[in-house]
Amino acid sequence: MISIMTVANLEQIQNLIPHRKPMLLVDEVIEQTEKRIVCKKTFSAEDFFLQGHFPGFPLVPGVILCECCLQSGAILLSQFTPNDGSVPVATRIDGAKFKRMVRPGETIEIHVTLNEIVSTAYFMTGKVTVDGKLAARLDFACSVARPTE
Fold first, then answer.
1. Cα distance between residue 38 and residue 114, in whole Å
2. Average per-residue pLDDT in the chain?
3. What CATH class has 10-145?
């Protein structure tokens, strides 16, 4: 596998996808090829989605772990999207499984693989790990859309 991008920082990520804080859920890209991307995200106790989510024992919501995969997939798909303001949007999530709790202060690795392209639909698999242990897994699809002005 030949790497087409070895590292992307926050500024470079913001040039590839439209997400911004507080909903930008990828801190860095650590590896990327044409069909695979590995990203990292470190969660903080101050993250808005942790406020009131299991008080006294905060957990990162499963939907946030899914969104981390979707955003990583969007970064991967940026190589296929035209430079006309088009963005990948989620069209389906299948078989989401949560295997391990993720807590504030932990860093996740997000692994997304592009499995198939059918017309403007992109089918991917996402895996979230903490210290090499699987925390979440899902299959998902995205299509490319152009936001209406």
1. 12
2. 92
3. alpha beta
